[in-house]
From TrEMBL, chains A, B:
It comes from Paeniglutamicibacter kerguelensis. Pathway: Amino-acid biosynthesis; L-threonine biosynthesis; L-threonine from L-aspartate: step 3/5; Amino-acid biosynthesis; L-methionine biosynthesis via de novo pathway; L-homoserine from L-aspartate: step 3/3. Gene3D superfamilies: 3.30.70.260, Dihydrodipicolinate Reductase, domain 2, NAD(P)-binding Rossmann-like Domain. Belongs to the homoserine dehydrogenase family. This is Homoserine dehydrogenase. It catalyses: L-homoserine + NADP(+) = L-aspartate 4-semialdehyde + NADPH + H(+); L-homoserine + NAD(+) = L-aspartate 4-semialdehyde + NADH + H(+). Its cofactor is a metal cation.
Amino acid sequence: MKTLKVALLGCGNVGAQVARILLEDASVLADRAGAKLELTGIAVRNVATQRDGQIPAELFTTDSAALVDDADIVIELLGGLEPAGELIGRALSRGASVITGNKALLAARGAELSALAFANDAQLRYEAAVAGAIPILRPISDSLSGDRITKVMGIVNGTTNFILDAMDTTGAQFDDVLAEAQALGYAEADPTADVEGHDAAAKAAILASLAFHTDFALENVYCEGISKITAGDVAAAKDAGMVIKLLAIAERGENGIGVRVHPTLLPRTHPLAAVHGAFNAVFVEAENAGELMFYGRGAGGSPTASAVLGDTVAVARRVVSGGPLPAIATQQSVQVMDFAQAATSYAIGLRVSDEPGVLASIASIFATNGVSIEALRQTVNRDSAPAVAELRIVTHRSTESALSATVAAVAELAAVQEVISVLRVEGN
Amino acid sequence: MKTLKVALLGCGNVGAQVARILLEDASVLADRAGAKLELTGIAVRNVATQRDGQIPAELFTTDSAALVDDADIVIELLGGLEPAGELIGRALSRGASVITGNKALLAARGAELSALAFANDAQLRYEAAVAGAIPILRPISDSLSGDRITKVMGIVNGTTNFILDAMDTTGAQFDDVLAEAQALGYAEADPTADVEGHDAAAKAAILASLAFHTDFALENVYCEGISKITAGDVAAAKDAGMVIKLLAIAERGENGIGVRVHPTLLPRTHPLAAVHGAFNAVFVEAENAGELMFYGRGAGGSPTASAVLGDTVAVARRVVSGGPLPAIATQQSVQVMDFAQAATSYAIGLRVSDEPGVLASIASIFATNGVSIEALRQTVNRDSAPAVAELRIVTHRSTESALSATVAAVAELAAVQEVISVLRVEGN
Ligand SMILES: NC(=O)c1ccc[n+]([C@@H]2O[C@H](COP(=O)([O-])OP(=O)(O)OC[C@H]3O[C@@H](n4cnc5c(N)ncnc54)[C@H](OP(=O)(O)O)[C@@H]3O)[C@@H](O)[C@H]2O)c1
Ligand SMILES: NC(=O)c1ccc[n+]([C@@H]2O[C@H](COP(=O)([O-])OP(=O)(O)OC[C@H]3O[C@@H](n4cnc5c(N)ncnc54)[C@H](OP(=O)(O)O)[C@@H]3O)[C@@H](O)[C@H]2O)c1
């Protein structure tokens, strides 16, 4: 049986588990891959760090370039743009294949690196980069290759799902739940990348590129995080039989491909509404297959390592036997949908003075802008003087541009005290 | 670009949709496959039947053998053991690759046909055979190839899920819901194969073989259908926060691999509990990945055709470029778990006379057999004379043999009027 040299870059949360499995399960992996996978070294920043005692100390090195130059397969689990990008480029240029979980790098340079892999007859796989353990990239690009995907909606960030789920369950405010999530290790000390949707946006760009056989640039992803979601928004959603989730949405419409990340109202009966805690799930709509959903752990050392090893076995099988490269994503040039043309329905919360004619003037602004109202609920608080009413409006499908013009005009009305929230609605 | 000759066997629910997509989407499929897929003919029983007018009449033939002998790729959608088995064998023996959705044939002869494919360097793929449109076989055998699957639990029969879901929603009896399902086309005139679990058992054998890299014979699948489930069982489950689903369960334990199909109580919070109507879903537990679930349409012409075409593109790519064959299932010999040793927890319903000491004698029989009681609820009906009580007992994990000995002994007690139901419980 052939032996393939495997270089591991990084021995953190994920890398340490990949090393453990490569060592512990060597014979099973060899059976499945058709080749022995020999771990030749592990690149880290600091060789002196005390680590899991099961990994032989002589494997650790800081000379990542030398490791890469001697490998058949490189597993990159450093994170960050550099030196990860340079090392992956170095490996692919030599014809070595690469497995990575680095969504930030892929969202920035995925098309370029895929092309480099293709040009060198090397493989580049990254199942772990989106939704951790969940097999989602291969099903999208392989299993659904005989179909046409029309829409992908994913809960792809565990931190924000944990926070929103806890807000839904406990009724607590965002800041309190975030602090709890940080204490439990579900959120980082600097939670910006998760909470503001940047992590989800990178994954959305990767999903869109594979689902629509194109190269969708990160800068074209509309991105809005969850830090402005209040306990009041969550309670109002609950009243309406809905739940708020941060979704990464990629869809193909008449005007091209639109990709957006934002807090979204979903009916509680939607399969994505049942995704709790830090779990992830990706909902896919395809012309023939209809609705599909893939559910599982989106992060964590061992779950993510499972996806990395699945890719490693696939890569090894092809290194041994040759055969077709995975389809390369950038087959079609992309027409990016102008975000102003994206269409969905909206839930709008307004605080208004409880005086005659307010409802009529609001409704007429909606009508003038061509935004049709599906449902409206008014709650009057007569204890405050003068009396105040809270309006919750749900619209039919309308474009972003029509909606924002409507909200801007409504906000100008003297009787409108506050626009409490504007949330997009899916699945209804 | 190379052209591959594709022979389609069958033009029924699924075959007609496969033909439509091959003709309508020819250029997209060619892009993805790296070869033109030329539909050379469609074998049917009766050429004269009036069919979808979009398919050129000259494609239809009754000479399936001639069609097979001229093809690079054969798509078998006839159903049944013969002539499907003979035609698949004929194709593989010539080195032509085969895509099929025929679970009955695969459960009976899958290992033999896989070996034949392997020996002839041909491919045999059958994603459509289990859970229709849901990509489940490739994720199990490819994406999870670097992991160890410990358990698979699937709702893999849409008819029975439709019936159980309707019983749960409406409180109606089995017979009434079955009649409605037949009227709506969700159940066949002869519903035996679905309702008695035979269809699910075939899929369970296929899932177990792939998940555990072995050849699990259909005759070793324990199979129990849903025809004895009453409205009372459904209501009692509801009271306990549970729902009844027909599950196909494959698990690896200390005593080997056990595969069983039976009605199962699941907590309403379990992801499988949210699978409604005729939808399917497969829940997978793996050592590193943890819990995963795959959800979608389990049947229907277009959804099933999506899976067939996904396989067809994969097969074509390898025919064009060579490369590794899909892993062959029978790598390890199988140790079949004796069903008597399978362990789960149980929910037992008993009708007993409301007299002193009954509970004590029942509890002592459980204790003697080593079956430990987790929960017990007694409802006394004093309107009947003499008074009657209904006991609902949930046990801790116990083996089938201990449980059946317990139930037999309990049934012997003079005070026990009826064993209302014995149901297995998962996910609690
Ligand atoms: N964690 C997850 O659940 C998860 C899930 C999906 C995808 N991912 C992705 O997987 C990748 C790794 O994540 P992680 O959580 O395992 O990261 P981590 O815990 O921060 O580990 C990073 C590792 O890389 C090493 N490293 C960093 N910079 C280096 C450099 N310049 N030269 C050599 N070694 C260097 C570190 O060495 P030292 O140990 O010496 O500091 C450490 O071992 C990231 O791209 C991440 O986005 C992670
Ligand atoms: N239906 C689903 O949703 C579904 C889902 C998953 C898997 N599957 C599997 O897919 C397969 C096909 O199912 P289906 O529902 O499409 O079946 P179907 O509607 O009964 O169609 C069967 C087709 O095969 C042809 N045929 C049958 N025996 C033949 C013979 N001896 N020679 C030539 N042609 C013959 C029939 O010809 P005529 O038209 O002339 O009668 C018909 O076109 C089965 O294995 C089934 O288990 C089906």
